[in-house]
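Appendix C. Worked example: N-acetylmuramoyl-L-alanine amidase
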Amino acid sequence: MGTIPIMRAYLASSIGVACTAALALPLALYPGPAHARAERAATSGSTQSLPLLPLASGGLDRGVAASGGDTGDRGVAAPDVRPFSLVGVVWDRPSAGLRARVQVRTRAVGSGEWSPWRELLPYEDEAPDPDSPERRSARAHGGTAPLWVGDSDGVQARVRPERTATADADGRAVADEGADGRAAADEGADGRAVAGGVRAAALPAGLRLELVDPGEAPAPPPGRGALRALPAHPVPPRPVPSRPARTHPVPTRPAPPQSVPTRPARTHPVPSRPAPPRSAPTHPAPTPGGAGAAPGAKPSAGSSSGKPSAGLPSGKPSAGLPSGKPSPDPSSPRPSPSKTTAGPLPSPDPSTQPPSALGAEVTKASAAGHTAPRPRIITRAGWGADEKIREKGHVYSKTVKVAFIHHTVTGNKYSCSQAPSVLRSIYRYHVKSLGWRDYGYNFTIDKCGKIYEGRSGGVAKAVRGAHTLGFNTNSMGVAVLGTFSTKKPPAKAVKAIAKLTAWKLGLFKRNPRGTTHLVSGGGNKYKKGTSVKLHVIAGHRDGFATECPGKRLYKKLGSVRKTAARLQGR
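Step 2, the predicted output written as structure tokens:
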């Protein structure tokens, strides 16, 4: 029997070794850059981070360690990773620019087919303001725009620095081989050092590829998945006039006096005690119930039915009756209305904002001269935002003077049913990969025209976002899911922009067809402190030298302004 404890200890030790080996096995399958930092949560998604290492001659060599030169091509090949749906490249310092061309291709789950090489576009212009705590935070990083790729389980990425020509021995300029490198990259750049007097731009430190899984969205609380549409002036009716219908039964409460005559019956012996002449005056003075009452008897509570006695003016005592008896007649209905008017207002529709938030919106709409109906807005709970990953609290501006329109450059290969997943992926990329305090845009619109609440803090409030570098204060950012450089934006999305901006700008008394001024916080188009004249509905490119919101979407802003003004009744 003494061997049993030894055998148990041996068995436990064997199981522990086997479990440890099983846990280590997946990591052993991905040497080099595929050793991914991962964060997992059952419903909120996960992020895998793959370092981008120098490429060896002949292709993607994951066994090459980073060298001191740090100016050559970078890449990673991870044919077997956990499923993900969105990719992006990030680096350590947000102020460090990426002078390089970034491309990725992914393998679809199920079919196993590899996509063509796709571009990851610049993103430094859609960020917190330069001097903001959000930008200066130790958690903040630089990064490319994220790209939606759908369900994938394999990835390859390459980063090719910009090449600049240098002078040869005779002082003649030497052109870059392949100009912008596009042809070579599309055919499979081999990453070899560029010769012939061409120098590659230095890459920022900490380059890594982020693979984002949006996870499964939890079911929103009942009635909190969307904010229903409201009229232009969402002022609830005054409760006082609407309450009398409920108070009609109140005057009937004194009806129990019908039973009062039974109580005087108990007092019949009282008149018999005194001499008969004293009881005589009581007979000509009938009570409403027809029963007599002793002159000294006090009426019971609620003895009045609210109706005047026969032959008597309402509210006046009759001769021979105690002066206090008729007083309940006119006063009995009065307390009831006062009690009902002091009650709470009717509860709002379960899909609306909480009463406090709705009240603030009502106040703003009432004070504004031109307002528009509030469109239906899918809440953060409706698209499955994980509130635990964002920074607590909110940052507000004093007002909203400009609505900046963006495109997310995440691509157009998504269905409307996938839009919540795309939002959760972007949200996680903004917070976990770029280190922002929350989702960057204030609102997002999908290709079907659905409007989504973005950064938390209240849809009717002046929440400061991270969408237009240098102009996030006193503005709001509206992003349309997709890329509209060459593709025409859907008509439903354009109409939704007009509805949303008409409503939100109306709360702050802004004319969608007007202009205003914002002071730049610093950027590549306007220096810090410059007062810039802008359209109230402006494109991102109006405040920053960027292609956003895409040539095709930018051309639609004129019609958006016109429609929004019409919705405000201008």
